[in-house]
């Protein structure tokens, strides 16, 4: 299967539709215990991404023999800033591949595309979070060069916290 990745253009209707379709599938995935996206969020999410200068979406497309293609993978990322390095950071917030296409290297291709984009933007690192129980995703990330931060091992495990507003 031929796969290609590209940075989505939020102005393109086909890219907007692909982002929404893939994000809806991801948000309902049992691997992340997701409740799915509400109707209100589905109506607004792509516009909200487009309104943020530091948001980026990367799509993976599977090409068909008839010349068409289907979006089968998505990363949504946000450029942040490392005060310790005084350089930008690319944080990957959503990383997903459609169920029927998993295990074929598409996730790795998406992560490679995100890493290339981060280098082009002069980022000092790429970050992401993964649920401890999602060993499949954690394995993909580690096989793609993502590691626990070396400087914090003596301090204990890095955990992800949030505060819902």
TrEMBL record:
<protein>
    <submittedName>
        <fullName>Acetyltransferase</fullName>
    </submittedName>
</protein>
<keyword id="KW-0012">Acyltransferase</keyword>
<keyword id="KW-0808">Transferase</keyword>
<dbReference type="InterPro" id="IPR050680">
    <property type="entry name" value="YpeA/RimI_acetyltransf"/>
</dbReference>
<dbReference type="InterPro" id="IPR016181">
    <property type="entry name" value="Acyl_CoA_acyltransferase"/>
</dbReference>
<feature type="domain" description="N-acetyltransferase">
    <location>
        <begin position="18"/>
        <end position="165"/>
    </location>
</feature>
<dbReference type="InterPro" id="IPR000182">
    <property type="entry name" value="GNAT_dom"/>
</dbReference>
<dbReference type="GO" id="GO:0016747">
    <property type="term" value="F:acyltransferase activity, transferring groups other than amino-acyl groups"/>
</dbReference>
<dbReference type="Pfam" id="PF00583">
    <property type="entry name" value="Acetyltransf_1"/>
</dbReference>
């Amino acid at each position: 299967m031929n796969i290609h990745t590209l940075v989505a253009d939020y102005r393109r209707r086909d890219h907007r539709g692909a982002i929404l379709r893939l994000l809806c599938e991801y948000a309902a995935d049992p691997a992340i215990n997701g409740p799915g996206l509400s109707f209100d969020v589905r109506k607004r999410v792509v516009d909200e991404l487009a309104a943020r200068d530091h948001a980026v979406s990367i799509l993976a497309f599977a090409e068909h023999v008839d010349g068409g293609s289907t979006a089968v993978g998505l990363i949504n990322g946000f450029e942040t800033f490392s005060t310790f390095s005084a350089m930008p950071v690319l944080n990957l917030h959503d990383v997903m591949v459609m169920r029927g296409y998993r295990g074929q290297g598409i996730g790795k291709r998406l992560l490679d595309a995100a890493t290339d984009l981060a280098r082009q933007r002069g980022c000092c690192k790429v970050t992401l979070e993964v649920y401890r129980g999602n060993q499949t995703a954690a394995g993909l990330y580690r096989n793609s060069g993502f590691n626990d931060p070396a400087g914090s091992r003596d301090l204990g495990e890095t955990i992800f916290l949030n505060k819902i507003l």
